[in-house]
Amino acid sequence: MGQILADLTAELFTLLLGILGAMPAIIGYLAIILLFMVIVRVVRQRMQPTHDYTSLKTVTFGDESAVVSDKAASIISVVLIFVIWGAFTGTNWLPSLFHAPGPFLGQESFTYTVEADDGTRDDATVTVVVHEAGAVPETPEIAPGDGPAKDDVLVVQAYRSKLLTWDRNDEVNRKDNNARIVAIDGRAISRDADVDTGFARVALTDKGTLNIEPGKGWQMENIWLPAPDSVWSRLISVSRDGYQNVTLAEHLSYSLFRVIVGFILGAAVGIPLGYAMGLSNWFRGWFDPIVEFMRPVPPLALIPLVIIWAGIGEQGKIILLFLAALWIMAIAARSGVSGVAISKVHAAYSLGASKGQIMRHVIVPNSLPEIFTGARVAMGVCWGTVVAAELVAAEKGVGKMIVAASKFQDTDIVLMGIILIGIIGFGIDVLMRAGEKWLVPWKGRV
Amino acid sequence: MRFDLPNGGHVQALQNVTLDIKQGELMSVLGPSGCGKTTLLNIVAGFLAPTEGKIILNGHRVTGPDAERGMVFQQGALFEWMSVRDNVSFGPRMAGKNRGEWAGNVDHLLDVVGLQDFKEKMVYELSGGMQQRVALARCLANEPDVILMDEPLGALDALTREKMQGLVLKLWKETGKTIILITHSVEEALLLGERLLVMAPRPGRIHKEYRLPFADLGVNQDLREVKKHPEFNERREEILGMIWDMEEEIMGRTEETA
């Protein structure tokens, strides 16, 4: 127990250190946003002072109705995300003025000083060529120069480092002469003290070779964070040619198919179940323990069991989504029934309605708002669950696409998939809200 | 129509309530909170079964809600997923009548309650007073023998309320329906009650019964004129005093037990 506590404390400490390390970036971001806020305010005051009702309210802090989403802030927020994304990936969508300093690229050189065991010293020049990933540069021809130490050429890919066996071509070497490097560009180097040559960091290894690490700048490498333009071009190429022989449309339709079928089945069983629970003591008692137990179990926790029972095919996915939607819809329908004002039911009975007519004309329409709220939640949960289930095991689907891409370090596809998942999830919610407005216009107005 | 004592649990909600209401009578029921007015109405409506006693209407015993007893609630209890017209025609439609049978009557009723321009509106677009008019029309459209009103004007503002009181009187005279109206407003009870029942609490029972002329005087008249009637003020003071005494008794009792 004490050990666990100590481990967790250490974890917490590491976490806090990480947050502390991220602080400058967070503060920088907040500062930019605040700056924009001030600018927009000043511009607005100058351009068109408003005199509508809200602007005349003197108490706005704490008055929720006086708070409206500022469109300018939303636009700045979205644009800023893309600008930051582009700046730290060096996208060609942004003028290079906005780019964060990139990694060193091109040709540079430094000199090293060798001291042999007899005390003699000699200098040699190392020409370093740093190239982008994928590009194959020509190795420049250089003269070996004079003296026992000969000049070298080193070709490195950007963001990588490389060992330089400097004595490979020298007349003095580590083995025979116990030669060692004492200085880089005239500055002393040792195992504890690296030398920054301006374009690269040079370190002495335990074996006496040099480790050359060209400057990485502030930009992110493509496999960590691809530029927005490469995500876009990936989107175009994947939607045209597909990824791993499956087209994007196929991935997306499989995911959507599972969500829609699972949700419809869940609603088809869950809503009547909820009505039964809302209308009958026996049903309420029968299903209350089951529903109350199953509701807090996240559908994701069912994935392993569903795979064991039903395999990784469509059946398993749909069973999972059915279960994800079922309890939410049952609870929504149940609370929809209990939300019917008793006076409405009494009124309907007094007007001579039968039980069936009350169900159809009073209880069902009255519970629609609750059911729609439940359906929105259920669709959101289903969409999240299908992606997670596909991450675990699937043949096709967006989740499958991003997990496969991540294994090949196709980070641009991973990012594209995440963005598509977000857009589709948002689109589903927008559609549900539109449907709600159309079918339940009285919601919130009674 | 007569009913007797029910009791539920430990609370004797009503005791020895025996009434005989004639056809076309407008009876208002008044009493302090907790005197069982609403319980009484629910029993008459058939929503509650009395533990003892019975209710007889048109020669048969009341056992549950039925279209012969219409109900108007404090908060409309309208169906907000339907238009005004659909609300009012709910009863006839549920009875399986076709459009031709009810359309004319529904139109007429909506005109009478002053909603001629709002027939196709949704009920949530109407004000509280208008919603109550819809509730009245909906009840009348079903042609019940008895109309039960549970503080139908309680949630309205004073001005709207006065207008609606006039409307209730007008509809009562025009249709000749038997009406039982529960209220907590002494003025309303006096104005609308051809017969006024004052109930006392714990157990709920009939305290005093009046026969009043004001309802007849008030039909199609300015209700403010009726209030100037010398007897009106006298009765009002008398009944207010009565209810005050009961309220004080309740308060005293609760303080003792607490």
Written description of the protein model:
The complex is a heterodimer of chains A (446) and B (258). Chain A has 446 residues and is an alpha+beta fold. Chain A folds into two domains: 106-214, no CATH class; 229-439, Orthogonal Bundle (MetI-like fold). Chain A has helices spanning 2-47, 71-87, 174-177, 228-241, 248-279, 281-294, 303-310, 314-338, 342-350, 355-392, 398-407, 411-439, and strands spanning 106-115, 121-131, 152-157, 162-164, 180-184, 187-188, 195-196, 200-204, 210-214. In chain A, the strands form two sheets. Chain A has a five-stranded mixed sheet with strand order 3-2-1-5-6, with no helix packed on it. In chain A, strands 4-9-8-7 form a four-stranded antiparallel sheet, with no helix packed on it. In chain A, a hairpin with a 2-residue loop joins strand 5 (180-184) and strand 6 (187-188). In chain A, helix 8 (314-338) packs antiparallel against helix 10 (355-392). By secondary structure, chain B is an alpha/beta fold. Chain B folds into two domains: 1-68 and 146-258, P-loop containing nucleotide triphosphate hydrolases (Rossmann fold), CATH 3.40.50.300; 76-143, no CATH class. Chain B contains ten helices and eight strands. Chain B has helices at residues 37-45, 84-88, 90-94, 99-112, 128-141, 158-175, 186-192, 214-218, 223-227, 230-257, and strands spanning 26-30, 56-57, 60-61, 69-72, 146-150, 178-182, 195-200, 205-211. A six-stranded mixed sheet of chain B has the order 4-5-6-1-7-8, with helices on both faces. A two-stranded antiparallel sheet of chain B has the order 2-3. Chain B is globular and about 55 Å long. Chain B starts with 25 loop residues before the first strand and ends with a helix. In chain B, 42% of the residues are buried. The mean pLDDT of chain B is 82. Chains A and B meet through helix 9 and helix 10 of A and strand 4, helix 3 and helix 5 of B.
